[in-house]
Amino acid sequence: MKNIITLLIMLLCAGGAAAANDPYIGFVYPAGGQRGSTFRVTFGGQFIHGVTQVVVSGEGVAAQIIEYNKKISPQTQRILVEQRDELKYVPENQRSPEESVMLARLNHMIGVYVQQPACDSIANILIAEVKIAADALPGEREIRLLAATGLTNPMAFFVGQLPEFTGVPLPTSAKAILGKEGESLRKSRGATAPMAAVMKGKDGTMPGGQGMELLEGEMDGMEMGESGELSEVDDAIARIKTPCVVNGQIGAGTVDRYLVACRAGQELIVEVKARALVPYLADAVPGWFQPVVKLCDSSGAAVAYNDDYLFKPDPVLMYQIKRDGDYLLSIYDAIYRGREDFVYRMSVGTLPFVTSWFPLGCQLGESTAITVKGVNLTQDQVLPESGFKAPQLTLLSATGAGKILSNTFPFALDAIPDLNEKEPNNSTGTAHKLRLPVIVNGCINRPDDKDFFQFEGKAGEQVVAEVMARRLDSPLDSEIMLFSPSGICVGYNDDVDDPGSGLNTHHADSWLTLTLPEDGTYTCVISDVQHKGGSAYAYRLRLSAPRPDFDLRLVPSHVAMNSNGGSGTLTAHLIRRDGFTGPVTLRLKEPKGFELQAKPFDDTQSVIQVRIKTTLPGLQKPVKLVIEGESKINGEVVRREAVAAEDRMQAFLWRHLVPAQELLAWVRGKAPEKAVVGQKKAAQSQAKTQAKERKLPPGLVAHYSFDATVDGWTPCSVDTNNNAKVTKTGWTQGWNKAGYALNGNNSRIDIKDGRHLNLSRFSISIHIKGYKIKDENRILFDKGGYTGYILSILGSEDEHGRNKGRLCFEIQGKRCLSEQPVTDNAWYNVVLTVDEKFAKMYIDGKLQRESAIVKKAFTPVADDLVIGAREDKSFQKKNRKKRASFEGAVDELMIFNRALTQQEVDDAFYCSIPHYNQKQVQGRMNDLDDLLERRLISKEFHARKLKELSLEG
């Protein structure tokens, strides 16, 4: 129990200085582009409001913010629907260009709206336009956003050399409900919007990439083969021209397919980057997107398959094409999961790929030729760069045809002298003799191979044996055995955890330390625990006295602070090597204008808090911080530069320190006060005043709030004799508090006929929200049928198809149609007024028809007013088509004994809206301001909505 509590505390405290509302990005799509291209990039994250910059490491990449769409509430969605509906029914030739753009954006946002996203932390979407210079150095960069509250975490972003194909970004995935998982699957984007089609420019190509030919149905007789049939959630197959990079996202249950023309003898390489883009998923098992790639020939037979490469989850498929023809390349998740952050970059073609290299490192200052093996390479040796002054890892690559760079591979530089193993050394009798200290470059050349090394030792000496292999991308799962001169195994190790190796979840490298028990010749044996081997199973074995040392990680990889004396905090992690136990002091090396405040690590500490202060005014761009740790080891001052890192969770539990390229600091300037703040205060004051001044119009004879039911009756707040009978209704969230849900079949509300309904002049106000509105004609309420009056919504049975969704008020046979159709799942306030020979209809306070003339003064009929279900007898007259009962929700029914004026309709609507407290009003005002700033609502609409807000005392 104690261990469990300790673990929970560690998890809660993990992340150190990272604040709960720090801006965060969970995916970047596409995660790179070709040099010399301009294209749009989608960021999915959380708390990324107020983004002003896209920050990319290195030179040659610039970006501009295009649009930000944060996750919205149902209330905000309702506002967007209202604004959309207002714009939608303005004649096209009367809309301004800005209104047309706004309408298109609103249609898109409403169409992709998801109330319960599969993952909230990636539901806020930002779109930027990225431009990569033609001379930008290819390779991996880091990309971040600078938001109102600070910098986000970095994500991998690649500058490539090849043409790129990019699919249309996935919409936000819906949360999967147990037993209803199918409802969370997105539908296929089909022929109209798959892949690059909807993103093509004027020249038919995708911005920053190439257009893809989309293939529907049969393709020259090719069968789908083991990749399966196209499902309703799969996109059309796309033909790609190699060599290229394909960018895509995998949705739940989907398979992405590409048609590739190949020639016999071609060494086809398919290299996927997926986990390399999003290293850890906190809410998914095993903690990352596990892609699978499969290649089928024209007969449908699978000819190649890969689901990982060596020990890495990202697959690499290598296949020598046997015959000319089209091949079908498929990519999907191993267990058919998917959502927006299942992003991949897939390089396809006759591309250079390094499969092994030797040695894995060399001594500082030495020039060592590295022998590389692989596919499609134009060189077999690589020389590392010179000029390094401290031990470190550097990344190298080889070249292929056209100077295309291969995959990168790590190379270690160390101060200890090194040498290559001498074969044969597969037994004690052929052991390679060594003189310590030394690093041996070796390789487990074949399965069950063992390498033997011997050195002379004296009793009491302390020796360390360490293997560097998995940390240098070797698949070797090493084990070390150390034998004494008398042949006794005195030391053994398989795995040792290295917190500094943030991307390795299997810490397969070995380390042991031993005080030698006697004088004589000691034998060290290296082998693979899994009995594997090959040219890729290389290693570096260090045999030496202990070299106490340390590494530092700073979390997170960014810090934000206010100008002129502001400060921010980081968490420093100390990783002790070879038994190091000394204190470590941190100091800020650069730049000027910042100050580091932290107590030194004592002999036992591994985590401390660090405060960074600044004297600078606000900065336009983030700056790079360089922080060093200093300690005295064996009489010498040792300094190590701290590595920036992000604390990431894997699969709900495990934590990893993932290294970053840069530690960035941003200093906020004083934000100018927005003019809208004053408008808010004025609107708030005005709303409060209006709330007190406005009253319900006179003449109210019945008011049903639908907030309560007693013995099957809902009370009338004006006269209890007018209580309404409720049949098979259900409770639902109403326009104001609770409302009634009507199922379109057998639920209804009956209001008994009486003096308050038998009027030649009257007004009815009701709030409605319908479902399946356009499926068929639906009766909202009915009093007397064809001889009295009916309110209905026209649907598929409407003889005039253009009127679908419009409200139809029929009074003694004459129709009054609304200008504005209504849509599903949206609340509307409908007011009908009758003044003997004239009828008017209002929706949300807006007059729909000036008047509808009745043949003669309206004569009331002695029928009950029925809301919801009804019999259809009266509509058999004049061949009227059958109308269905209303399916949806109703709330706040008010009946007046007079025809209301426009001002009174406004007052009635205003008095029926929900009243909010101070905090709620402020939140809704902030939402309206945000929508206005993002140009999703007009200034007029914004002003009107502010006026609708009222305050409770």
Describe the protein's topology.
Blueprint: H1 2-13, E1 24-29, E2 32-34, E3 38-46, E4 53-56, E5 61-69, H2 74-88, H3 97-112, E6 124-132, E7 139-147, E8 150-151, E9 155-160, E10 164-166, E11 213-215, E12 237-240, E13 244-249, E14 256-262, E15 267-273, E16 291-296, E17 302-306, E18 316-320, E19 325-333, E20 343-349, E21 353-358, E22 361-363, E23 370-375, E24 381-382, E25 392-396, E26 409-414, E27 418-420, E28 432-433, E29 438-443, E30 450-457, E31 462-468, E32 478-483, E33 489-493, E34 511-515, E35 520-528, E36 538-544, E37 549-555, E38 558-562, E39 567-577, E40 585-590, E41 594-597, E42 607-614, E43 623-624, E44 626-633, E45 636-641, E46 643-650, E47 654-659, E48 664-668, H4 675-693, E49 700-704, E50 713-714, E51 724-727, E52 730-733, E53 738-743, E54 748-751, E55 761-770, E56 778-783, E57 789-793, E58 807-811, E59 814-817, E60 827-835, E61 838-843, E62 846-853, E63 865-868, E64 884-885, E65 887-896, H5 902-912, H6 918-933, H7 939-948
Parallel strand pairs: 2-9, 10-13, 12-14, 22-26, 27-29, 28-30, 37-46, 38-48, 56-64
Antiparallel strand pairs: 1-3, 3-6, 4-7, 5-6, 7-8, 7-9, 11-12, 13-20, 14-19, 15-18, 15-20, 16-17, 16-19, 21-23, 23-24, 25-26, 29-36, 30-35, 31-34, 31-36, 32-33, 32-35, 37-39, 39-42, 40-44, 41-42, 43-48, 44-45, 46-47, 49-65, 50-51, 51-54, 52-53, 53-65, 54-63, 55-60, 55-65, 56-57, 56-63, 57-58, ...
Helix pairs in contact: 2-3, 4-7, 6-7
